[in-house]
Design a protein that fits this description.
Blueprint: H1 2-29, H2 36-63, H3 73-105, H4 110-113, H5 116-142, H6 148-188, H7 193-232, H8 240-259, H9 264-278
Helix pairs in contact: 1-2, 1-8, 2-3, 2-8, 3-5, 3-6, 6-7, 7-8
Length: 279
């Protein structure tokens, strides 16, 4: 069982690093792909690359030595770095979904709201929030407070709940706007129903991919929150730990596949690259 856990974990980690590394290289190397939306895609891919590179390998190397215990200096460093990458992936995902939310729900305000400066602010904030959380964690841990681990548990649980609530709100809002807009378009454009249907189907499919990513994210964070509740109540996570680690890596791997490879501009560039090689 232990061997299968590490084999699957390493396989998922390598796959996640390869997929996210390709997205980072491909988007950055193509001038026409350097758009506002793709800035969020690259930032998310960097965070997910870190998840694949750190989460499973750090646990694996800690399991090989007796000195890397959860309360040792090495174990604490590994834990804080691992939590930072996971939370950075979550906040970057929220920023990307927020950008899609503005594009779907407020399309007329998108150009005025999503300026170059605003994009930079959102990306920096996506990395700054988990960094500040880790600084808070480290400060509480080094303060020597008796209830330090309990406080850390509640802070982590609060952060995870906030991320999940924000994503659920954005997703439900996008579904509501898309399908209510479909009904309006169907009434106004009956004479041109083919074009209207094609447009709404494209938007609906995009929202469905957002829904898929959100469901994987909520599954991952649901197990994380359950573990936090168990630890705070004095119990052990048990087998949840194994599911949690694999889901975290799967979540980071599927993010890039859904948000990058199913984007129209990246799809077109991939097709051009494949056709050039065939010639």
């Amino acid at each position: 069982m232990e061997t299968c856990f590490w084999v699957l974990g390493w396989f998922l980690s390598i796959l996640t690093m390869v997929v996210n590394g390709f997205v980072i290289f491909f988007v950055c190397s193509k001038r026409q792909l350097r758009t506002k939306t793709n800035a969020f895609v690259v930032s998310l891919a960097v965070a997910d690359f870190g998840v694949g590179m750190i989460v499973v390998p750090s646990l694996f190397f800690c399991s090989l030595t007796t000195e890397c215990t959860p309360r040792s200096k090495e174990g604490l460093i590994m834990t804080f770095v691992r939590v930072f990458t996971i939370y950075a992936s979550g906040t970057n995902l929220v920023s990307l979904v927020l950008e899609r939310y503005v594009a779907f729900v407020k399309p007329l305000k998108y150009l005025t709201f999503m300026t170059r400066r605003r994009v930079i602010q959102m990306v920096v904030t996506s990395w700054g929030i988990p960094f500040l959380f880790i600084l808070t964690f480290v400060s509480i841990r080094l303060s020597g407070i008796d209830l330090a681990w309990t406080m850390l548990g509640y802070l982590g649980l609060l952060f995870e709940i906030i991320l999940c609530v924000i994503l659920i709100f954005f997703l439900t809002s996008m579904f509501f706007v898309i399908y209510s807009r479909d009904c309006t378009l169907a009434k106004q454009l009956r004479f041109n129903h083919v074009v209207a249907r094609a447009k709404t189907q494209n938007k609906a499919s995009a929202v469905k991919w957002v829904a898929l990513i959100t469901c994987v994210f909520l599954s991952c964070y649901g197990i994380m929150m359950r573990c936090s509740f168990l630890v705070l109540t004095g119990h052990k996570c048990g087998n949840d730990f194994h599911y949690k680690i694999h889901l975290q890596v799967i979540n980071s791997g599927i993010n890039s596949i859904a948000y990058a490879f199913f984007k129209r501009d990246i799809q077109q560039e991939c097709k051009r690259l494949l056709f050039k090689r065939r010639r």
